Each structure stands twice: as C-alpha cells, then as structure tokens.
Amino acid sequence: MQTVLITGASRGIGAKTAELFARHGYRVIINYNNSRNDAEGLLSGIRKNGGEAEIIKADVSDSAEVNKMFSLITTEYGGVDILINNAGIAQTKLFTDITDDDWSRMISVNLSGAFYCCRSALPYMIRQHYGRIINISSIWGQVGGSCEVHYSAAKAGIIGLTKALAMEEGLSGITVNCIAPGVIKTDMTAQLSEDDFKELAAQTPTGTIGTPEDIARAALFLADKDSSYITGQVIGVNGGFTV
Question: Does the residue 195 lie in any domain?
Fold first, then answer.
C-alpha cells in the first residue's frame, strides 16, 4: 500500500483529496496545523468507509516540525511515496499595505513549506527510485492577481520549484508536477458573494465554478504509477478561465 502525505488536508481541497485517495486504496496521512476537529472528523469518515488514514499536526512553515512529521511517518511506514503540498494561506491586500509579517508568513507557509516537505520526502523516494510530488499552485501564480501580490509571488515560486526539481529528480524515478487551480469554491474564496461567483462563472468557458473534487481528481491522475512520463508540468484545472 502506497503512503500519501497531504499537507493542509483538514478542509477544502486537501480534505477532498484525502477522501479520494483513501477510496482508491492509498494510506493517507492527513496533515493539519490548527483545525484539529476538522482533521479528526475527516479521519473518522475515511476509516468508517474502510480507508486507512492517520493525522499528524505540524506547521509546515517550521522546518523542525516538518522534520518531526517525516520522522514519525518514516518510523511507522518507511516513508512517503506521494507528497501533495497543498497547505496554503491567502490574503487580499493592496501592495502598499502588505507588511513585513504579511510577506514573511505568506512565503513561509505557501513556498517554504513545500520546500521543507520536498526536502524531507526525497531521501526515501530516491532510495526506492520512485516517488510522486504534486504541488498546488494557483492561476494567480501564472498570471498574477491584483491585491494578492504576495500570494501570487509565493504561488509563482511553487511553479519554479516544481519545474527545477523535476529536472533534478527525473533520473531517480520521481515525477514532480504542479496543479494550478482556477476559481474554486473553498474557504479561501468565502469572501466572494454569490453575484461574484455568477460573474466568474460567466467568464469561464465551462460556465461553472470549480470544486475541490476537480483538483483532487487531477492529483489522483498525477499520482498514478502510469503517469510516469508526466513531469515538470503545470496542470491548469480552471474550466478554461483566463484573465
């Protein structure tokens, strides 16, 4: 049984990804930082449906906590076969209002967290000559988002990390890919009104707003053993939405 670690998995995209992977026979490690109740509820639901899962608390922006999380996984299961770097935060602010703390926190969680997890996951993947790393970026990392400069910069960094790491690890049997969601209805878009969503749907060729399940299905495809010739790619799951 392959082990998949999903960071920031207690809610939204992470939770739906955890549920989908569990249904397809993966052992799921649910990482969370603050939302323990949500993580426990997700764990209970997966186990009730016959899936195998565990929860681990760790702040991915703290390298020491990441190291401890991977040490626990290594002791229990040997290592992580599939890493999905999903943990992230968002903030809407004018560029001139972004503080040093805002910038530091955004980069630490969204970009440094992925770096720390990749660094901890790779030794096991290299030894077994197999691994899947899937990083969650954003359409704003591709095109930039007004009033989200720090978020866009962090998500663009995820794309650069993905492409460079894919080149470095290809001969080790490890694929590294990136999913760039478009407008997805999650907690991160909770500030948008129904009229906002209707307008965004009207701008989308499919005429719909994306769901966490859409992202989860893309991750499941990239994690499959048969997806071995796909690496260094940015998969836009956005209904054709462009800006």
Answer: no
